[in-house]
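Hey, I'm writing a tutorial for new members on how sequence and structure tokens pair up, and I'd like a real worked example in the thread rather than a made-up one. If someone can provide the structure for the chain below, I'll link this post from the tutorial.
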Amino acid sequence: MKKLKLKEVLKRKNPYLFKVKYIVTAGDFIKTILDAHLSSQEETLFGGFLEGLAIYICNFVYNGTKSSTEGIDLELEKDSSKYIVSIKSGPNWGNSSQINKMKDNFRKAKRILGTNISSSLNVIAVNGCCYGKDNIPDKGEYLKLCGQRFWAFVSGNENLYTELIDPLGHKAKEKNDQFLEEYGKVVNKFSLEFMEMFCDSTGSIHWDKVIQFNSGKK
């Protein structure tokens, strides 16, 4: 957050949306675009953390390993089967083309593994989702394991999905206080910059200038 630049954030967000929300103060505008930016960043960063956590746990329990195969995050053997796993944050992670790409990656990985592992091992593809539900896990070409099913799959513990909550909250208040302090500084800094760039002497927002900065051709 300390490295953020107001102009960079402004270029990525939809200014028409903020006008429709009838935002009239610089502070409210900055909080809205900053929260939208941070929300998308948090989802990406925390998704990466959960993926790493799942691989770490699976390595500890089943000697699972991070895969080097394109589109595959985790490989493990159990129950006389070889599992190839693509890990996503939640169940609604992609559109049809992205799902087809994942299935294509599964097919390629199966072909590669078919020449490298014992023929006695059945190769099973898994789309693992760190949260959410899908009560029809068998998708034909692959299994979709979400939430409790996924964490039980990588750990052998049916209750791990709830047991993760307490350690994830360790020192959360301390970190949150530090974040709020830095967040306040960025809001104040960006508000001042925004007023200098896009507000007139009366304090009104010049929306045409905001739109021109965001969408005008050079």
